[in-house]
Design a protein that fits this description.
The complex is a heterodimer of chains A (110) and B (115). With 110 residues, chain A is an all-beta fold. Chain A is built from no helices and 11 strands. In chain A, the strands form 2 sheets. In chain A, strands 2, 4, 5, 6, 9, 10 and 11 form a 7-stranded mixed beta sheet that branches. A 4-stranded antiparallel beta sheet of chain A has the order 1-3-8-7, with no helix packed on it. Helices cover 0% and strands 50% of the residues of chain B. Classes of the chains: A mainly beta (110), B mainly beta (115).
Chain lengths: 110, 115
């Protein structure tokens, strides 16, 4: 069966510091992968999606970037974090038009 | 572009009572519709989905949802709630068709269960 992992589970970072969140999927090959952000009191916002290695589409211009160095690995990065980057970050993969989510990373920027 | 509205931010239901969570969508074609549940600090778990066919769909944990095209709605129901159903519920719409597009989510409904 397929499993999706995210780490770290929680992260507290100062403003201006870099960021790297990792997502990996097991049990499938060439999945579509997604990064969402969930800010307090709001729904989920799609940030990036990827249909293959090195192929990244951005949905919202912002302080973040994404990369897919391997088939089942999706990384969310930032060079300098802003306070507004705080939130709950969710990675997802899709199979037959259905998306399945990872456990998430809680990011607090101070 | 598609959109999703969940009109109820919070709903309080007594344990054992029935539940209905509302979801309205806006999309030009037949959408792919989903309900997800999120417990505090956790990821999203898929409850059920509608792509086509029978407009009443059954999901996990005793939930069901009905697609009503005329009302652009996809309301979630459960005949008898349990304390463990307390969580955040999200309705989402997708374009489908095998593309890579992400989902558009509503802002969620927070379900509180009273003993």
């Amino acid at each position: 069966s397929q499993t999706i992992h995210q780490w770290p589970a929680t992260l507290v970072q100062p403003v201006g510091s870099p960021l790297s969140l990792e997502c990996t999927v097991e049990g499938t090959s060439n999945p579509n992968l997604y990064w969402y952000r969930q800010a307090a009191g709001r729904g989920l916002q799609l940030l990036f999606y990827s249909v293959g290695i090195g192929q990244i589409s951005s949905e919202v211009p912002q302080n973040l970037s994404a990369s897919r160095p391997q088939d089942r690995q999706f990384i969310l990065s930032s060079k300098k974090l802003l306070l507004s980057d705080s939130g709950f970050y969710l990675c997802a993969w899709s199979f037959r038009d259905t998306q399945y989510f990872g456990p998430g990373t809680r990011l607090t920027v101070l | 572009a598609q959109s999703v509205t969940q009109p109820d931010i919070h709903i309080t239901v007594s344990e054992g009572a029935s539940l209905e969570l509302r979801c309205n969508y806006s999309y030009g074609a037949t959408p792919y519709l989903f309900w997800y549940v999120q417990s505090p600090g956790q990821g999203l778990q898929l409850l059920l989905k509608y792509f086509s066919g029978d407009t009443l769909v059954q999901g996990i944990k005793g939930f069901e949802a009905e697609f009503k095209r005329s009302q652009s709605s996809f309301n979630l129901r459960k005949p008898s709630v349990h304390w463990s159903d307390a969580a955040e519920y999200f309705c989402a719409v997708g374009v489908g068709g095998g593309g890579a597009d992400g989902l558009t989510f509503g802002k969620g409904t927070h379900l509180i269960i009273q003993p």
